[in-house]
Amino acid sequence: MRPAITLALNWPASFGRLVVIPALPTFYQIYHEIMLEIGIGDRMIDLVQEGVDCVVRVGELSDSTLVAHPLPPLRQVTCGSTDYVARYCLPSKLEQLEGQRCVDYLSATTGKLQHLEFCVHGQVLLRTLPASLAVNNGESYVAACEANFGLVQVPYYHVARQLEHGSLIEVLPQHRPPDLPITILYPHHRRLTPRLRVFIDWLDAQCRNPNI
Questions:
Q1: Whole-prediction pTM value?
Q2: How far is CA 131 from CA 2, 201, 210, in A?
Q3: What CATH number did the domain enclosing 61 receive?
Q4: Does residue 17 sit in the same domain as residue 80?
Q5: For 78-104, how does the pLDDT look when each residue is reduced to its tens digit (9 = 90+)?
Q6: Does 45 share its domain with 105?
């Protein structure tokens, strides 16, 4: 028998697969009466027309009329594949990025090219490297890195397994990119229902996990 309370959600594929879904049993230990209907995507959608209670979006947001509830930001890393590093060498300082390559990332929400960012003494420095491949999806971005196309900058959760197993190597850990914003969005005219409130609180706690 289906639970009586339904909550329709939408979030990016990699965030759902690697962060939310594995942790959902802890949600259902408390809120077993809530039925979650999950959609996958990065694009902005019409929540009212599509019957969605809220969306989770990673990265900077374009202008929106939705209520934005920020979650704890995601730490990011710069990494490359072991074969790539063996060919291009492992840079130990920013000046050694010359001669390196990257995978370009196009934001699915804004359509803009995301430059590489490095934190140096409290400032964010932008770097542009040559690339032969551009993608607009996190899964493809990491796959291109694993296929030796160049350096990428991604949330840690996205490459934690590969870094642990050694197929990817973190680059310039002393100059990690700034944390990545993550936001829950829901319509202005909908009050924050109890079922949405408990889900937001639960997801907020998951994003504070030091392993993410």
A1: 0.88
A2: 49, 40, 32
A3: 3.40.190.10
A4: no
A5: 999 999 999 999 999 999 999 999 999
A6: no
